[in-house]
Every structure is written in structure tokens, then in C-alpha cells.
Amino acid sequence: MRAAAEKAIELDPLSAESYDALGAADAREGPWERAEKNFRRSIEIQPSRPEAHGHFAVNYLLPLGRVEEAIQELRMAEKSDRNFTFFLGDALADAGRNEEAAGVCETLPPDYGGTFGDLCLPGALARAGRAREVIQRYGALPANAPRVNAALVCAYARVGRREEAEKLAATLPSGFNVQGQAFACLGDKERVFEVLNRATAIGPIRMGWLLLRVDRECPGLLRGDPRLKALRKNVGLP
Fold it and tell me: What is the pTM of this model?
């Protein structure tokens, strides 16, 4: 990817797509200042291109925890590219703006649910104080809906049904996001760190997303723990 982007820039120094790709390559490897420079150059060349704003938000601003800036960029991207709707809802949830996040998630088309839609709405509703609604709305879903089941763990925990939350959590597959979300909702720091330590190979971008999702389910759960600083350093996050 890097070699292709660099060659494309050599052939066309005003290729916004190529600077966008180069910024993504940098972000995956961790030279964050260079990544930002390339993303901003892409936006400078073609400011109306939605992918330039969306990729900057998703691959750079969100992993680094710059959530409000990411929301601004995603709003610009989402105006003309609905592929960024989920990411806007997700970023609003990261900012604790859960009613807004739920509103955005509800605009996703029905056929979006098989990919990201089912990760978006139930969690936002549960965090917005509508946990009972989540249980009523999603509690009868089949067992093969892990993202929804993770949100249900959170809903059960939020209404004090701890035993049911733990029982459902035990059925979750070993995916980092679903387990990290569920264990954070249960306030179980040790199990969250077990998930994070298993996830180090996913790289800095995905680890940044995962840390945001853990923090939005239980704000401050990992704050001040020296293991968090070591983990961030290990995966290439500042």
C-alpha cells in the first residue's frame, strides 16, 4: 500500500487519494505526525472528497482519542457518503452523546445490520438510560448475534440483573470488541485487560478503537492503571 501510494504521488503530486492512502499506511505503522500531515494534505488538495475527511477521522483521530475532531470530520464525510453513517454514530457514542448516537444509528438502512448496524443501536440505547428497552427489543434474538448479545450484557448489568449479564457474557465468542465491551460493562478490569493483552496484534488503529469502546462502557475503568500505559506503548499508541 505504501509503495503504491508513493509511486502514485510521484506520478501525480496532486492525487488526494494517494495522500489519503499514505496517511492510512502511516497510521497502521505508528508514525502519527507523518500520518496527520498526509491526511491533511489529502483534504487540502480535494476538500470536497468525503473519503478524505472520513478516513482521517476513522484511521487517525479516533484511534488517538480526538473524538470531537473526528465527529466534525465524519459529519462532513457523511453528508455525501452514507458509508460513514455508522462511524459517525460510533464516534458520538465515544463522546458520550448516546441519544444523538442512537438517532444516527436508527437512520442506517435495514440491510446494514448484518455488518455494523447491530453494533450501533443497542449499545447506544443502553448507555442512554434505555436498558429496559434494549432487553425488551433484543432479548429474544438468536444466540448467533454476538454484537447484540454484548449490548444485552450491558443492558442487564445496567438494570441490576448481574447474574443474567454474567451468564450471557459467558456465551460470547472470543472477539475482542464483544468481550471487551461486555467485561467493561460488568466493571471487570482484570478480564478487560486479558482481552486487551490478547488483542495486541491487531495494531494501533484497531486497539485505539477498542480502548474507546471499553471507556465508553465504563468511563475511567482503566484510567491510572500502569498496564494501560504499557499496552499503548506496546502497540504504538501515544
Answer: 0.92
